[in-house]
Every structure is written in structure tokens, then in C-alpha cells.
Amino acid sequence: MIADIIKDAEHKMKGAIDHAREEFGAIRTGRAHPAMFNKLLVDYYGAPTPLQQLATFQVPEARTVLITPFDRGAMHGIEKAIRDSDLGVNPANDGNVIRLVMPQLSEERRREYIKLARHKAEESKVAVRNIRRHANDAVHKLVKDKEVGEDDARAAEKQLDAVTKKYVESVDELLKVKEAELLEV
Which pLDDT band holds residue 6 (cuts at 50, 70, 90)? Predict the structure, then answer.
């Protein structure tokens, strides 16, 4: 029973780390990459549709992205979604592809992105700690219901703390890499 609780908590913590990785991928760096568009929704025939489902992405140069829509009718909606986003780019449409040239990041903008990355990292750590708290509550419920002993519960708490520490350190490592990437000129 306790092993199942710990295994479930660890699985959920892995999910929190994956989510943090996605969030960090969406934060723009000096280089262009398709993950920047993961959160963009396009009004496609009246339905909000993820941009990733409407087009292909190519990155021919470090700061250039070419977006080729599957349906040319979606071009206007894609352009509007990009213009309205917080990416800070102006799309250029040649009729077949949408070309985006990412502007060089200013020092001030880099600092803002680092602040955002730290905020996302803290959210991920809180999620990991909440998972630990819920697992500890489940263990304490087993003790209360006399299904496991106090010694087993203490051992489970130590094991959960070790797993939590591992995943919090993993978030810190992801943040460190993202900060270095943002500071790179």
C-alpha cells in the first residue's frame, strides 16, 4: 500500500517536471524554436485551435521561423494570433508561408524572462511539494485506519522526502539551464 502511494507520488512528480520543461520551452530565448508557439491558439473557422495543429515550422536561421499553414485560409488567423501574442514579433506573409524574424533580446527583456522562468520554477516546486503533502496525508490515513504501523509511516515519509528533494533539485537544474540560455548573447 505504501509502495503504491510512493510510486503514484513519484509518477505525479515526474508529470510536474515534464510540465515545467514545457513551460520553460515556451519562454523565448535569443534563438527561434517551434516550442515558442505551443500555447498559441488560432481562431480557425470559429474554433480555438492550437497553432501546432494548423501548420509546420522550420527554423532556417537562429532567429528566423517559417510557418507553413496546411490550409491557406488559416493564414490570416495565424498572423493575428502571433501579432496578439506576447512574443513581440511581427509576422510577414508572402502568400505561402509566414516569416517571423525574432528581434534581438534587450537586457531588460532578458531579465523579465529570467523572472518569469523563476516564477514557473517556483510553481513547479510548489506542485511537487503538494504532491508530497497529499502522499503523506494518504500514509497518515493508513496509520489512522490501523492498516500500517507508525514505523512504516515514518520510513515512507523519509522516502517521500528523498523523492521530493530529487524532483525539486531537478526543477532547480532546469531553471539553471534556462537562465544560462537566456543570458547567452
Answer: very high
Give 185's pLDDT tier (boundaries 50, 70, 90).
Answer: low
Q: Do domains 2-25+106-183 and 32-101 have the same CATH topology?
A: no
Tens-place pLDDT, residues 59-90: 888 888 999 999 888 899 999 998 888 777 88
The 3-state secondary structure of the chain, one letter per residue: CHHHHHHHHHHHHHHHHHHHHHHHHHCCCCCCCHHHHCCCEEEECCEEEEHHHCEEEEEEECCEEEEEECCHHHHHHHHHHHHHCCCCCCCEECCCCEEEECCCCCHHHHHHHHHHHHHHHHHHHHHHHHHHHHHHHHHHHHHHCCCCCHHHHHHHHHHHHHHHHHHHHHHHHHHHHHHHHHHCC
Topology given in CATH for the domain delimited by 2-25+106-183? Topoisomerase I; Chain A, domain 4 (1.10.132)
Fold of 32-101: Gyrase A; domain 2 (3.30.1360)
88 or 118: whose pLDDT is higher?
118
User: Does pLDDT of 39 surpass 90?
Assistant: no
